């Protein structure tokens, strides 16, 4: 009877020992991202006009203890939209420095910063070009910034 | 009794697995909205035929076409609204120093062969409710009253493209 009671306890302790080298001996891993200078606003623009964001750059604050990580950017849609009107999100460009042309946004994730190793603030500059003849209106699109540990 | 022990063992293993997952590799994301307000916009350029020139004319000379007809007006591709093109004079008279004659002697039309309309200082639509950015033309002709003092006479012509 005692053996039956002791058996699960022994197995539990064995389980903990198995993971002890990989988990218990290390502090908990964490990776946290917070954006500042948002939303990304361009104010009023005319068709065929190119302009940088009113508050450049977007600040990406990363707090982490992982060894290395990437920061990736992607648009939440393929178009800026205003009711039934739209224009391609690729008219919005980003760059890690204030130099344009940069990289066009798409609906696919792209690496902005790679192999980062330190907690801190990272910059993302934005520039927008309005297509000629684009109908008047208030247009927006969502942007997603992701920090991912490199395994 | 054995079943209960197995249940206890299962719970312990789950707890162990959860403990391990706390230490798993991580990622995090945040989102922002990018927004812009696009203005109503009309681009208008006088591309040729400006200034509107009649060269030399005699007093009492009947209507004469501008030597550089037509006045061409380009509505740029940036234009994002329907629009009307109108014209008017900025004065009731042509002037040359203290000499004048009525601006109504200057006429316009979008058709070079059609009867033309006298200029006034009020806006008159030449092309109404247009939807396509492109080049538009206005033809001008001028008559000189008699008698009229010699001189170089000028008046301002204002071409306006306005959103409908």
Topology:
The complex is a heterodimer of chains A (151) and B (164).
Chain A: H1 2-24, E1 31-36, E2 40-45, E3 50-52, E4 58-64, E5 69-75, E6 79-82, E7 85-88, E8 92-95, E9 103-104, E10 110-116, E11 120-129, E12 137-149
Antiparallel strand pairs in A: 1-4, 3-11, 4-11, 5-10, 5-12, 6-7, 8-9, 8-11
Chain B: H1 2-22, E1 27-38, E2 44-48, E3 64-65, E4 71-75, E5 83-89, E6 93-96, E7 99-102, E8 106-109, E9 117-118, E10 124-130, E11 135-142, E12 157-163
Antiparallel strand pairs in B: 2-4, 3-11, 4-11, 5-10, 5-12, 6-7, 8-9, 8-11
How would you characterize this protein structure?
The complex is a heterodimer of chains A (151) and B (164). Helix content of chain A is 15%, strand content 48%. Chain A is α+β, with helices and mostly antiparallel strands and 151 residues long. Chain A has one domain (29-149): Fimbrial-type adhesion domain (Immunoglobulin-like, Sandwich), CATH 2.60.40. In chain A, the strands form three sheets. In chain A, strands 1, 3, 4, 8, 9 and 11 form a six-stranded antiparallel β-sheet that branches. A three-stranded antiparallel β-sheet of chain A has the order 10-5-12, with no helix packed on it. A two-stranded antiparallel sheet of chain A has the order 6-7. The two termini of chain A are 46 Å apart. The model of chain A is unreliable at 19-23 (pLDDT under 50). Helix content of chain B is 13%, strand content 41%. Chain B has one helix at residues 2-22, and strands at residues 27-38, 44-48, 64-65, 71-75, 83-89, 93-96, 99-102, 106-109, 117-118, 124-130, 135-142, 157-163. In chain B, strands 2, 3, 4, 8, 9 and 11 form a six-stranded antiparallel β-sheet that branches. In chain B, a hairpin with a 7-residue loop joins strand 8 (106-109) and strand 9. Residues 16-23 of chain B have low confidence and may be disordered. At the A-B interface, helix 1, strand 1, strand 2, strand 4 and strand 12 of A face helix 1 and strand 1 of B. Strand 12 of chain A pairs antiparallel with strand 1 (27-38) of chain B.
């Amino acid at each position: 009877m005692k053996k039956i009671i002791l058996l699960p306890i022994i197995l539990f302790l064995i389980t903990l020992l198995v993971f002890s080298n990989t988990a218990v001996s290390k502090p908990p891993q964490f990776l946290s991202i917070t954006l500042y200078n948002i939303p990304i606003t361009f104010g009023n623009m005319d068709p065929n006009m190119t302009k940088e964001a009113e508050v450049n750059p977007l600040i990406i604050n990363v707090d982490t203890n992982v060894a290395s990580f990437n920061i990736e950017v992607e648009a939440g849609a393929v178009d800026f939209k205003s009711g039934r009107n739209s224009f391609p999100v690729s008219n919005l460009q980003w760059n890690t420095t204030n130099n344009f042309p940069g990289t066009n946004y798409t609906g696919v994730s792209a690496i902005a910063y790679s192999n980062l190793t330190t907690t801190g603030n990272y910059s993302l500059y934005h520039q927008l070009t309005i297509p000629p003849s684009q109908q008047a209106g208030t247009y927006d699109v969502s942007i997603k910034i992701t920090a991912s540990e490199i395994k | 009794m054995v079943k209960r022990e197995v249940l206890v063992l299962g719970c312990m293993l789950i707890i162990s697995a959860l403990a391990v997952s706390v230490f798993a590799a991580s990622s995090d994301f945040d989102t922002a909205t990018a927004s812009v307000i696009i203005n109503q916009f009309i681009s208008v350029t006088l591309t040729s035929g400006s200034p509107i020139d009649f060269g030399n004319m005699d007093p009492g000379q009947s209507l004469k076409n501008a030597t550089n007809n037509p006045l061409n007006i380009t509505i740029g591709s940036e234009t994002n609204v329907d629009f009307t093109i109108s014209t008017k004079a900025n004065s009731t008279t042509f002037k040359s120093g203290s000499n004048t004659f009525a601006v109504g002697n200057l006429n316009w039309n979008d058709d070079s062969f059609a009867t033309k309309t006298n200029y006034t200082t009020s806006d008159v639509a030449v092309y109404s409710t247009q939807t396509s950015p492109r080049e538009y033309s206005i033809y001008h002709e001028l008559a000189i009253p008699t008698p009229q003092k010699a001189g170089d006479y000028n008046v301002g012509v204002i071409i306006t493209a306005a959103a409908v």
